Amino acid sequence: MQNYSIFNLIKNAFTNHQNWDLAWKDPTPKKEYDVVIIGGGGHGLATAYYLAKEHNITNVAIIEKGWIGGGNVGRNTTIIRSNYMHDENALFSEFGMNLWRKMSQDLNYNVMFSPRGIINLAHSDAQMNAYARRGNSMRLNGIDALLLNREQVKEIIPMADFSDNVRFPIFGGLMQPSAGTARHDAVAWGYARQADSMGVDIIQNCEVTGFDISAGKIKGVRTSRGDIKVKKVGLCVAGSTNILAEKLNMTLPIETHLLQACVSEPVKPILDRVVTFGAGHFYISQSDKGEMVMGGDLDGYNSYAQRGNLPTLQHVLTEGIAMMPFLSKLRMLRTWGGIMDMSMDGSPIIDKTHIDGLYLNCGWCYGGFKATPASGWTFAHTIAQDRVHELNAGFSLNRFSTGHLIDEKGLGTKTWIS
Amino acid sequence: MLHIKCPYCGMRSQNEFSYGGDASVKRPELNKEISDQEWDSFVYNRKSLRGKHLELWQHLSGCRQWIKVERDTATHEIFNTYKADEEIS
Known about the structure:
- The structure holds 2 protein chains of 2 kinds.
- In chain A, 28% of the residues lie in helices and 26% in strands.
- Chain A is an alpha/beta fold.
- In chain A, the strands form 3 sheets. In chain A, strands 1, 2, 8, 9, 10, 11, 17 and 18 form an 8-stranded mixed beta sheet that branches.
- In chain A, a hairpin with a 5-residue loop joins β17 (349-352) and β18.
- The termini of chain A are far apart.
- Chain B is mainly β.
- Chain B has a domain at 1-22 and 51-84: Folate-binding fold (2-Layer Sandwich).
- Chain B is 9% helix and 37% strand.
- Chain B has a 4-stranded antiparallel beta sheet, with no helix packed on it.
- The A-B interface holds A 242-243, 246, 251-256, 300-305, 307, 309-311, 344, 400-401, 413-414, 416-417 and B 1-2, 13-15, 18-19, 21-22, 36-37, 40-41, 43-50, 53, 55, 71, 73-76.
């Protein structure tokens, strides 16, 4: 594989950049693999990469129904953070932060990681207390957290509404300075390119139509491009988890829901942080192209449509304008929707299943993108060693029956009811 | 925007309704022995079908009645709506 470097850039300039290697190949599926990862999104590609890199398992195929990076890794608002209170989420996410920090070097691919900091705004004394508690929990887990008062927030984001007669005045906020954003497509492509270079087959336009299971053990997967014999299968299909679970006769603590995001027309630099509104659900950052990238609540009903409705968008943007009134002057460039695997406690599942050789990675709710490296790393460990790593031990499938829920936001059993 | 026909009030916009989840989920009978597995399935586990989905909605900003809606989760097409206690063949 050609290295991406300034020297190779100059070298290839002499041939008008016609001779670059393909970033990944387009192989036909083999008859047999050690591991098949279903789903060529960020998590699936990362899993394959870490299987090869950390566990030396390279007889691996990624099977993707569409094209790689075409699902949620290509549709998110690119926010990366680890500002969690509970140990399971905090330690897992902070492990991921360390992978993010060196990802561009590791993958030899510029993922444009930009640790610009995230500020969660507080709009009441009670919320300031809750953030102080969360910030303390974060610090105890070695994550950077700063509790900001109103004046400090005003210094950082003066464009927010600090007038006196607003419905939700800004009391302060909790900041994680090391949080940030990254270029989402580059993450998928970077993992794909490295996985491919280590021998992983990336098979696109190939739909999984069924599974071969005998005596409680996975034997193979049936696909639209033929049957494949396999020892281990990892399911990494986010919003399509329930569809494949049905083929496995499994019913999971997951509902598939619709989440929209949008970007405004590009404007000159105004916002150099990620900011979330604390009196509702709205988050915003500015992309390198100048677009304001925004998102918020789920549409609120089961959906596989990848296409939302305007009432939710209106609701979300009303919150945005309440927080930063200048947004009302911007024109909308683009809106889109993706399908979320909403788990019942808002935390993910990375675990073995009752079927020998079948592993589950799902339930990412709104937070799948930032988890990409940590999810891939721990899922690869779980598959390769046939046991969970301590980082994902809490994300078990049976926690719903044993009562060990990780209810990070205290939303209870139906995270989609707001 | 979804338009939902409330069996009591007629066609209204989605803004007036709130969602209540899968209507096919049955609460275990109280007077019979219930296993943990059954409670699990009732509280947490969902089929989340792609395609025709029978679900509960409440006409929150209208008559406040709970209703059942038969809707396609892939296309958002609404086929039919029923009163909450209506038998569906």
